[in-house]
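name: query_chain
kind: protein
chains: 1
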Amino acid sequence: MNNQHSRKLSLSAIVLAGGQSSRLGQDKALIALQGIPLLQQVCEVALKCTSEVYVVTSWPERYQDILPDTCQLIREVPLPVEKSPHGPLVGFAQGIAQVKTDWVLLLACDLPYLQGEVLQGWATRLAQVQKQAIALLPRQAKGWEPLCGFYRRQCLPRLTEFINQGGRSFQRWLAENMVEELPVSDARMFFNCNTPKDLELLKKKNSYDPNDCEIDS
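structure:
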Protein backbone atom coordinates (compact mmCIF):
# COMPACT_ATOMS: atom_id res chain seq x y z
CA MET A 1 0.00 0.00 0.00
CA ASN A 2 1.59 3.28 -1.04
CA ASN A 3 1.09 6.59 0.71
CA GLN A 4 -1.39 7.78 -1.91
CA HIS A 5 -3.57 4.74 -1.23
CA SER A 6 -3.32 5.26 2.55
CA ARG A 7 -4.50 8.85 2.15
CA LYS A 8 -7.54 7.65 0.22
CA LEU A 9 -8.25 5.31 3.12
CA SER A 10 -7.75 8.20 5.57
CA LEU A 11 -5.59 6.02 7.81
CA SER A 12 -3.00 6.86 10.43
CA ALA A 13 -1.22 4.66 12.98
CA ILE A 14 -0.65 4.92 16.72
CA VAL A 15 2.02 2.87 18.48
CA LEU A 16 1.70 2.66 22.26
CA ALA A 17 4.99 2.73 24.18
CA GLY A 18 3.82 3.81 27.61
CA GLY A 19 3.92 0.57 29.56
CA GLN A 20 6.08 0.03 32.62
CA SER A 21 7.38 -3.37 31.38
CA SER A 22 7.20 -4.49 35.01
CA ARG A 23 6.75 -8.19 34.25
CA LEU A 24 9.68 -8.22 31.82
CA GLY A 25 12.02 -6.25 34.07
CA GLN A 26 13.37 -4.08 31.25
CA ASP A 27 12.02 -1.68 28.67
CA LYS A 28 10.53 -3.93 26.00
CA ALA A 29 10.39 -1.07 23.48
CA LEU A 30 14.20 -1.02 23.45
CA ILE A 31 14.79 -4.76 23.14
CA ALA A 32 16.91 -5.12 20.00
CA LEU A 33 16.26 -7.94 17.56
CA GLN A 34 19.03 -8.16 14.98
CA GLY A 35 20.15 -4.73 16.12
CA ILE A 36 16.76 -3.03 15.70
CA PRO A 37 14.77 -1.99 18.81
CA LEU A 38 11.24 -3.41 18.85
CA LEU A 39 9.65 0.04 18.86
CA GLN A 40 11.60 1.07 15.78
CA GLN A 41 10.70 -2.19 14.05
CA VAL A 42 6.97 -1.75 14.74
CA CYS A 43 7.06 1.86 13.50
CA GLU A 44 8.78 0.83 10.28
CA VAL A 45 6.09 -1.77 9.66
CA ALA A 46 3.36 0.80 10.37
CA LEU A 47 4.94 3.15 7.84
CA LYS A 48 4.21 0.57 5.14
CA CYS A 49 0.51 1.27 5.73
CA THR A 50 0.49 5.03 6.24
CA SER A 51 2.85 7.99 6.31
CA GLU A 52 1.23 9.25 9.51
CA VAL A 53 2.62 7.29 12.45
CA TYR A 54 2.42 8.52 16.04
CA VAL A 55 4.13 7.09 19.11
CA VAL A 56 2.33 7.71 22.41
CA THR A 57 4.65 7.52 25.40
CA SER A 58 5.37 9.09 28.76
CA TRP A 59 9.06 9.20 27.84
CA PRO A 60 9.50 10.78 24.39
CA GLU A 61 13.12 11.69 25.15
CA ARG A 62 13.92 8.00 25.65
CA TYR A 63 12.80 7.01 22.17
CA GLN A 64 13.26 10.05 19.94
CA ASP A 65 16.66 8.94 18.64
CA ILE A 66 15.52 5.48 17.48
CA LEU A 67 12.34 6.41 15.64
CA PRO A 68 12.11 6.86 11.86
CA ASP A 69 12.27 10.56 11.03
CA THR A 70 8.67 10.75 9.85
CA CYS A 71 7.21 9.39 13.10
CA GLN A 72 5.71 11.89 15.54
CA LEU A 73 5.85 11.63 19.32
CA ILE A 74 2.85 12.35 21.54
CA ARG A 75 3.63 12.76 25.22
CA GLU A 76 1.24 10.74 27.38
CA VAL A 77 0.00 12.83 30.31
CA PRO A 78 -0.91 11.03 33.57
CA LEU A 79 -4.47 11.60 34.74
CA PRO A 80 -4.64 13.65 37.96
CA VAL A 81 -6.66 11.01 39.80
CA GLU A 82 -4.39 8.06 38.96
CA LYS A 83 -2.30 6.55 41.74
CA SER A 84 -0.94 3.73 39.57
CA PRO A 85 -0.24 3.18 35.84
CA HIS A 86 -3.52 3.66 33.98
CA GLY A 87 -2.88 1.22 31.15
CA PRO A 88 -3.06 1.45 27.37
CA LEU A 89 -6.67 2.64 27.05
CA VAL A 90 -5.87 6.14 28.32
CA GLY A 91 -2.77 6.38 26.14
CA PHE A 92 -4.84 5.41 23.12
CA ALA A 93 -7.44 8.06 23.96
CA GLN A 94 -4.78 10.75 24.21
CA GLY A 95 -3.27 9.63 20.91
CA ILE A 96 -6.48 9.37 18.90
CA ALA A 97 -7.46 12.85 20.10
CA GLN A 98 -4.49 14.19 18.09
CA VAL A 99 -5.12 12.47 14.75
CA LYS A 100 -7.31 13.69 11.89
CA THR A 101 -7.84 10.54 9.82
CA ASP A 102 -11.07 8.54 9.77
CA TRP A 103 -9.29 5.33 10.79
CA VAL A 104 -6.43 4.57 13.16
CA LEU A 105 -4.27 1.46 13.16
CA LEU A 106 -3.39 0.81 16.81
CA LEU A 107 -0.29 -1.26 17.59
CA ALA A 108 1.60 -2.25 20.71
CA CYS A 109 5.33 -1.52 20.67
CA ASP A 110 6.34 -5.14 21.30
CA LEU A 111 4.99 -7.10 18.32
CA PRO A 112 8.09 -8.65 16.73
CA TYR A 113 6.22 -10.69 14.11
CA LEU A 114 4.20 -7.89 12.52
CA GLN A 115 4.15 -8.01 8.72
CA GLY A 116 3.45 -4.91 6.68
CA GLU A 117 1.92 -6.86 3.82
CA VAL A 118 -0.56 -8.51 6.20
CA LEU A 119 -1.56 -5.18 7.71
CA GLN A 120 -2.03 -3.75 4.23
CA GLY A 121 -4.35 -6.61 3.39
CA TRP A 122 -6.33 -6.03 6.56
CA ALA A 123 -6.69 -2.34 5.73
CA THR A 124 -8.46 -3.14 2.46
CA ARG A 125 -11.41 -4.37 4.55
CA LEU A 126 -12.02 -0.99 6.16
CA ALA A 127 -14.22 0.29 3.35
CA GLN A 128 -16.72 -2.51 4.03
CA VAL A 129 -16.96 -2.10 7.82
CA GLN A 130 -20.48 -1.29 9.00
CA LYS A 131 -20.96 2.35 9.97
CA GLN A 132 -22.12 1.40 13.47
CA ALA A 133 -18.89 -0.44 14.24
CA ILE A 134 -16.21 1.48 16.10
CA ALA A 135 -13.44 -0.97 15.30
CA LEU A 136 -12.20 -3.83 13.12
CA LEU A 137 -10.23 -6.19 15.34
CA PRO A 138 -8.92 -9.75 15.43
CA ARG A 139 -10.44 -12.02 18.05
CA GLN A 140 -9.10 -15.05 19.87
CA ALA A 141 -10.48 -17.28 22.61
CA LYS A 142 -9.47 -14.82 25.32
CA GLY A 143 -11.26 -11.94 23.60
CA TRP A 144 -10.46 -9.10 21.24
CA GLU A 145 -6.89 -8.22 20.26
CA PRO A 146 -7.16 -4.49 20.98
CA LEU A 147 -3.51 -3.56 20.31
CA CYS A 148 -3.30 -4.86 16.76
CA GLY A 149 -6.28 -3.54 14.83
CA PHE A 150 -8.24 -0.60 13.47
CA TYR A 151 -10.46 2.00 15.17
CA ARG A 152 -12.68 4.75 13.85
CA ARG A 153 -11.66 8.18 15.10
CA GLN A 154 -15.33 8.86 15.82
CA CYS A 155 -15.12 6.42 18.75
CA LEU A 156 -13.35 9.10 20.81
CA PRO A 157 -16.44 10.56 22.56
CA ARG A 158 -17.55 7.11 23.73
CA LEU A 159 -14.01 6.29 24.79
CA THR A 160 -13.66 9.54 26.72
CA GLU A 161 -16.96 8.95 28.50
CA PHE A 162 -15.90 5.42 29.46
CA ILE A 163 -12.58 6.68 30.87
CA ASN A 164 -14.24 9.55 32.75
CA GLN A 165 -16.49 6.98 34.42
CA GLY A 166 -13.41 5.14 35.66
CA GLY A 167 -13.12 2.53 32.90
CA ARG A 168 -9.62 1.33 32.10
CA SER A 169 -10.22 -2.05 30.41
CA PHE A 170 -10.10 -2.34 26.64
CA GLN A 171 -12.16 -5.53 26.75
CA ARG A 172 -14.93 -3.95 28.84
CA TRP A 173 -15.07 -0.88 26.61
CA LEU A 174 -15.19 -2.97 23.45
CA ALA A 175 -17.94 -5.13 24.97
CA GLU A 176 -20.11 -2.01 25.24
CA ASN A 177 -19.72 -1.15 21.55
CA MET A 178 -20.14 -2.74 18.14
CA VAL A 179 -16.91 -4.26 16.86
CA GLU A 180 -16.42 -6.17 13.61
CA GLU A 181 -14.18 -9.21 13.67
CA LEU A 182 -11.13 -9.28 11.45
CA PRO A 183 -10.44 -12.83 10.23
CA VAL A 184 -6.81 -13.79 10.85
CA SER A 185 -5.06 -16.95 9.71
CA ASP A 186 -1.76 -16.55 11.58
CA ALA A 187 -2.04 -15.72 15.30
CA ARG A 188 1.75 -15.32 15.54
CA MET A 189 1.21 -11.68 14.56
CA PHE A 190 -0.06 -11.07 18.10
CA PHE A 191 2.91 -12.53 19.96
CA ASN A 192 4.24 -9.86 22.29
CA CYS A 193 7.12 -9.66 24.70
CA ASN A 194 5.67 -9.26 28.20
CA THR A 195 7.66 -11.70 30.31
CA PRO A 196 11.18 -13.17 30.55
CA LYS A 197 9.75 -16.38 29.07
CA ASP A 198 8.51 -14.44 26.03
CA LEU A 199 11.95 -12.88 25.64
CA GLU A 200 13.58 -16.31 25.84
CA LEU A 201 11.36 -17.50 23.00
CA LEU A 202 12.44 -14.52 20.93
CA LYS A 203 16.09 -15.27 21.61
CA LYS A 204 15.62 -18.78 20.27
CA LYS A 205 13.80 -17.67 17.12
CA ASN A 206 15.90 -14.62 16.27
CA SER A 207 19.52 -13.65 16.07
CA TYR A 208 19.38 -11.73 19.32
CA ASP A 209 22.36 -9.95 20.84
CA PRO A 210 21.72 -8.66 24.39
CA ASN A 211 24.61 -6.23 23.94
CA ASP A 212 22.50 -4.46 21.29
CA CYS A 213 19.87 -3.66 23.90
CA GLU A 214 20.66 -0.55 25.94
CA ILE A 215 18.05 -0.24 28.63
CA ASP A 216 17.27 3.16 30.10
CA SER A 217 16.37 2.44 33.70
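note: The two ends are 38 Å apart (CA to CA).
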